[in-house]
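Entry 12.
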Amino acid sequence: MPRRHTWADMSRAEFVSMATPSYKYEADLIPSRATINLPSLICEICLKICDGAVETPCCCKVFCGDCLHHWLSASPVCPSCRTTLSLPLCKSPHKLVGEILGDFQVKCDFASDKALEGCTVSVPLKDLCAHCAACPYQDPLHQRRVPSASSTVSELLKSSPTKIKGDSTVKLTSKLVSCAETQGTFQQRVGKSSVSWVRQTTPRVPSDLASPRTRRRRTKDLADYRSAVSGGREGSKTQLASEIRSQSLEERHSLLKSAGLVPDTPGSGTTLAIKADLHLPWNALRKLKRWFKKFGLTLDSEGKTRQQIACALPFTILSVDTPLFDRAGDIVMAPLVHIENLVEAVLHYVNLHDEAGTLGHAWDVGIIPHNEIWVKIGGDHGGKSFKLMFQLANCKNPNSMSNTIPFLVFGAKDLPANLEATMKMYIAQIRELMQTQWHGKKIKVIIFGDYEFLTLSYGLSGPSGVRPCLYCLATKGDFQGASENEHAPRTLAQLQNDLAGFVAAGSRTAKAKLHNNVLRPCLLPVEPCDVCLPVLHLDLGIFPWIFESMIRDTCKLDCSLACHTQALDGDSSAFTDLVGKQAELDKLTDDLQTHELEAELNQN
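Predicted 3D structure (tokens):
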């Protein structure tokens, strides 16, 4: 008994060659297919007559050997019944299948259709290849296969045989000639397919040596060809974008540069100008440089930019590591950056605003006298650093970021010891600045900042002291009682005397109230009367107090109305309910305040 043939160890080519004869053919070209069960001989993968047919054991369906090989390589299931399948289980169909396929009477590949005149002979499928090789209608214009898209007009015209006659050939030839003369495109029906014909000219000179007129004409030809291949204008845009994306970054940059669409490499100082104009921190500038690099633009390095800053400024900037205290009270080495000469820095920025014409805004509106220049000095802790800065109040928008110049920055908390260690270097310079004149105009120094910074800078104990006010010697009782009596103002001389008394008494914090709550030396040699009110922080404290006062007065009004209603109606139930709910509300308020106080104590 003959052994069943399998293909377990065969390659794809060997696998296909061992199957039935190759009769791959369009099923709709078989004229007498009603006499047989044609669907059973059509491959369900490519939907054509089986080529090198093989049979599956699960459903006994016949497929092309090549199609089934590719199918099982991607998915090991039967294409028809979805049963698990592998190549060794497949077998050759009965040789009768090949004989049936070979005896089919089929049309010639160059048969006539509605558009073109062609061969009218029908031959057995097994003899089709021999007939097509000797068929007198072997012409690209009559072939059922679509001509290559790269075929030129001249090649198609030269390949036309003299034997072919008919109106269709004459019409197509005239259209091709018209296309060659007008450089246009047109579509022609060839069999069951629609072919787009585009004129292609053989260039005599490359585009880099051609004239601008020739390059413009070639650009139009390429645009027409891309539109024809891509299926329209919108498809042409998508195709062009795909072509650009397929190129490397260097090729794209070179292409755009040769087209004059990429600016030259930014000159020295461009990075510094971008940083200064956009007020970018260093980390944002690094991200911007990486974004520019995607488009082939390289900015100056960070080190070079810092050197340019140092050379552009007429004053010296120093950077050192200094011992400071952290939150836990431990000494750490923290970075400290500061301007060596504050007076030179202030005069430099005054001159810059004067040259730009932005110095006299406050003079024009009458806020500042014409013979004075106001310089605001203040500090604030934000993030992980403390910054001491100055602003020119004569300019428009004096509190803006562009008008704020830091001159002292250190990476630590603004503790009293840290402020004393870093700010004392500027006490003499601030005094010198207050005695300096600019073109005959006096420079006046004003201090600004939040309440915590101001009390620390002037050596006061802050809100916990008996005399918490920065400007006068009023006590907490005077604030709570809304006293209208005048109180003695604080002065630099009075602060110095109180500090001397506090030190002489042993520097005991519990006795600070006897010395007007002065604990430390003053770090800013500016009179307290020249300190800006911390309006924001005052608002954060005043508005809740006003709201709570309104709630209390509203409750009193409700109680008065309830008493009046009880007197008129003689019903005390409404008044009793109101008093009970008010008592519950007061209890909830007290519990909430107690909880917040406990949480704050636990955090400290």
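Annotation: Confidence is low (pLDDT under 50) at residues 1-13, 15-20, 31-36, 140-170. The first strand starts at residue 53 and ends at 55.
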